Amino acid sequence: MATNLVRLLEGSIRSNNAGVAQRTLRVFSSQQQQSEHSAEDDEEFRVLNLRTVKQQARRRVIKKEVVPPPRTTHMPVDQDWTAVWSGPRSFHPASVPLPLRQGYTERGAAAPSKYANAELMKIPNFLHLTPPAIRQQCEAIKKFCTPWPKGLESEATWKAIFPVEVVTTDYCHSLPTIRHPEARRVTITLKLSDLKFDAHAKDKFLRLVGDRYNQETGVLTFVADRCPTRKQNYDYALYLLTACYHESFITEPWEASKSEADMEVYLFERNKAKLSAEAILNWNANGEKQAPSATYADSVEKLINEGENEYNIAKYKEEVLKMLKIAN
Amino acid sequence: MFRKQFGNLSRVSTHLSRNVLAARVASREAEMSTNAAPAEAATAPPVVNEFRTGVGNPGEHSDVQIGKFYTIPMEEKKQIFSGGGLPKQYEQQIKTFTEACLMVRSPALELLNYIKRADLSKPVVRYVLYGDNGVGKTLSMAHVLHYGMLNDFLLVHVPWAPNWMKRPKESANSASQEGFIDLPFDAAAWLVHFKTQNSKLLERLQLKTSKEYVWSKRESTPAGSSLIELVEHGIARIKYASETTAALISELKQLATAGQCKVMVAIDGYNAFFHPITRIFSDNKQRVSPDRITLTQPFLDITNYDWTNGVCILSVDKIAMTEGYMESYLPRYLLGKEGFEHLDPFVPVHVGNYTEKEFTSYIKYYLDRHWISKTQPGFEEQLKFMSNMNPYTLMQLVRGL
């Protein structure tokens, strides 16, 4: 039916305005258009092309960047290395003018060169910390430093004058707030030998401080971080030290009830050893009492407190022989 | 098991061969005696060479005799050590060698020096022998005991105290003390030992008891009866042996303090008195600690410092302990806190392994006794390394040579 209709129209259109009619007709059917073309020029077989010319994918031509030769090839010998390698950075072969090699190979073969060498990139390097770089940085911060106080030249002197060491840490970081939670922590260290004690106070002090005292090094450590600011923590740590020290000199009434089983060290004075020694020395003696010598007491205490060994036993034997007047 | 049997066999065989030898020697001597005058072995002057000394009195021993052997006459040996006091294997060796030889060693000499020098009017001094296993603590003690016997000390000698705690013959509830355990047979055996050691001296001294001891309704030992009577009563009435021991020891303390006699206390394995683990069980199957044994009390009492005219030689030994308590041979460890407090102040005397000189001397002695017969070159060095110059190990090693 459609073809009939077209033929009918065709006659009239050809006569007056072919161009306009053709444009209106195109909407009806493609089949019709094809037949029209074949009618126009029959000499060439035309290819059906559904896409417009614009839409057709053009093959992209990959343009290769021109790789410049490594920077090391035109580095002057007297260049400023700190400008090349200013900060910590993983290894880059083209920036380091050194023939470095690293990595595992078969036996006899040379180690892989620095180019595309993951081994070299993995390890930390100190190329930014060359002696000239350090010198340069020291030079730069020198203007912020004050001279070292006179009279505190040696470590021994300043340790004697300032026995308490305060350690705090400042943090440099990128956050909306400049307050780092760890920055408030204050650590105070000092040697126990710098404090003056009597025997009772020392014992009590060590019990009070507990594991804040390191027995091997003899160092006391107070760490304060419970207050919000550093100043408060510092004050609190000093307060702890002061309070423990003064508390240790107070003798509570219940401390007198400490029995032999509670003793942490053997004391000659409190034990049967003293009674026996006195009884033997003052056998059948009237008048003034003889007391066992201090060296004997010391040897017994050492034997018990330090534990037995050949030396302590020999010392004890020597003292006993002296006390009993057997040796010579 | 096999090794043990083998050891026994070899021992038997050596005994046999030695007996055969001895028989041969005896027969030869008999032949000779028919021809010539009878040989007087007992009165012959003792042999003196580089490893033997003629000085038979321990009181005269000095540094010159260190490393040399001296012979204890058989009667004296029988008197002192018939109830124990020498290690079993050493006893066998004495039997095999047909002579009781002891080496003069520095720990014993040191002890003898102290004893000679000490003032007997002062409270008794406690000497504690200590040392590793098998170094000769018991034999050093034996040396000193010999000295004590020759110098009129009454010997209060416990050959091996742990025997009471570890393998008692019999245990019974004590009649006199509530909750205590008696070891009647062991106590009686000790009384017999005391009697054999001291009967001669007791007869000579004529010691009397100070008070009356009432054993039961019908039995009592009146005041003023001799100590021998007391001892014999204990031996005859085994039931009361433990109490008799306690009575005897308290009497000895009093008599010694009064100056009527000198007492030498020698207790081997003394630390057993302070070791809480024993093999004695009470009626309710509870382990009895040594302080609940009636026999312990008198011996702890006599090692106290509250008497004079005496000397205490004690030895502490790892073997006296039980498993788990044998880490160290040092006296404070073995005695424990309680034992140390009881003995303090005591004189520790260390007994060590052989010195070079003692070792060579011992090897020479073994060669002399034909105990070592295979002498390959360098066997001494080899023995030295294998035994680490430990006396007991050496004795064990040369058994097979």
From TrEMBL, chain A:
Domain (Small ribosomal subunit protein mS35 mitochondrial conserved) ranges: 179-248
Superkingdom in the source lineage: Eukaryota
Pfam families named among the record's database cross-references: MRP-S28 (PF10213)
Cellular component terms per the entry's GO annotation: mitochondrial small ribosomal subunit
GO molecular function: structural constituent of ribosome
UniProt-listed InterPro entries: Ribosomal_mS35_mit (IPR019349), Ribosomal_mS35_mt (IPR039848)
GO biological process, one term: mitochondrial translation
PANTHER family attached to this UniProt entry: MITOCHONDRIAL 28S RIBOSOMAL PROTEIN S28 (PTHR13490), SMALL RIBOSOMAL SUBUNIT PROTEIN MS35 (PTHR13490:SF0)
Protein name: Small ribosomal subunit protein mS35 mitochondrial conserved domain-containing protein
Species name: Drosophila mojavensis (Fruit fly)
Recorded name of the encoding gene: Dmoj\GI11400
Automatic annotation (TrEMBL), chain B:
Biological processes per GO annotation: apoptotic process
Keywords from the named record: Mitochondrion, Ribonucleoprotein, Ribosomal protein, Transit peptide
GO molecular function: structural constituent of ribosome
Pfam families given in the database record: DAP3
Record bears the keyword Ribonucleoprotein: yes
Keyword Mitochondrion: yes
Subcellular location: Mitochondrion
Primary location: mitochondrion
One GO CC term on file: mitochondrial small ribosomal subunit
Source organism superkingdom: Eukaryota
Similarity comment: family membership: Belongs to the mitochondrion-specific ribosomal protein mS29 family.
Protein name: Small ribosomal subunit protein mS29
Lineage summary: Eukaryota, Metazoa, Ecdysozoa, Arthropoda, Hexapoda
Gene name tied to this protein: Dmoj\GI18979
